Amino acid sequence: MKNPPKIAIVGATGLVGRTMLQVLLQRIPNATISLYASHKSAGSPIVEGENKYTVQLLSTDNLSTEYDIALFSAGSNISRQYAPLFQQKGTIVIDNSSCWRQDSSVPLVVPQVNSQSLKNHKGIIANPNCTTIQCVVALNSLQKTFGIERIIYNSYQSASGAGANAIMQLQRQYGCYDNIIPHIDDFCEDGYTKEEHKMIFETQKIFEKNIATTATCVRVPIQYGHGVSINVQLSKKTSFEEIDQILKQDRNITYYNDNTYPTPKDAKGKDNVLVGRLRKDNTHDNCYNLWVVADNIRKGAATNAVEIAEILL
């Protein structure tokens, strides 16, 4: 790859795209960065600190520049159309949409958990769902130490998970204002939503496919940060004290113990996953409850993609 590396952001004017730019400037400051978006935003300026950019039109006629890496956050339809075009030019695509996550030939990567999967990439790498990312980071040390048999997820997801328009609707007191909605994305034939299926499938793809996993995903009236209550059944017997020590030593999380706990406000703008409220589930053998919080736009999307880029570079 070139030095300095050339990196494109596709979907640069959205919530995640703008955050990708911020994280790139912080973590790969020597990169040469180009921004792409639709005709609605093409030609508009973006200023980030001392850096000024002009958004370029994303079109098949405007991809003459060769990039080392392209970060995509423009939705599945755009990823399906344009990711292969970048790939054909030798660019490695890190895609934040759901387009490639279930493709068996495309690695689904959380760097703190399964960076070894990057060895098998063929030019496209999938970023998991934001809620999946924070959960597998929180559970990773337990999976490696004890193994996991079953996971029950209950997520409480902020409006920003549905984009900038959802934040504006929340501010205007529509939608989930003063309410919670147990419905994120479309319903499937089995009564689960697509968001719930994402968490189930992606957890199994990243960890092990035989881990029994179920989920309920709920939209809550806050702007940023997702919280997930996790009930996990471990394969090997252990104790509260041993798990407590393992989580204290996990550098990839910020652990709250002694009945302290994180909230979405604590997670805003941070790259770490926050974990608290560890307790034994007294109704089932070898089961424990955890409360996990992360910034869904930063850690749950932008930072994970940039961390993948850092490894590749």
Sheet with the most strands?
Answer: 6 strands, parallel
Tell me the overall shape.
Answer: globular
Give the distance, in angstroms, between the N- and C-terminal Cα atoms: 7 Å
Q: Estimate the helix proportion, in percent.
A: 25-40%
Describe this structure in words.
Helix 1 crosses helix 9, helix 4 runs parallel beside helix 6 and helix 4 (130-146) crosses helix 9. This protein starts with 5 loop residues before the first strand and ends with a helix. The strands form 3 sheets. A 6-stranded parallel beta sheet has the order 5-2-1-6-7-8, with helices on both faces. The protein has a 6-stranded mixed beta sheet with strand order 10-9-11-14-13-12. Helix 1 links the parallel strand 1 (6-10) and strand 2 (32-37). The protein has helices at residues 15-27, 76-88, 111-114, 130-146, 164-171, 194-206, 240-249, 264-267, 298-312, and strands at 6-10, 32-37, 45-48, 51-54, 56-57, 69-72, 92-95, 124-126, 148-157, 212-219, 226-234, 253-255, 273-280, 287-294. It is of the alpha/beta class and 313 residues long. It is built from 9 helices and 14 strands.
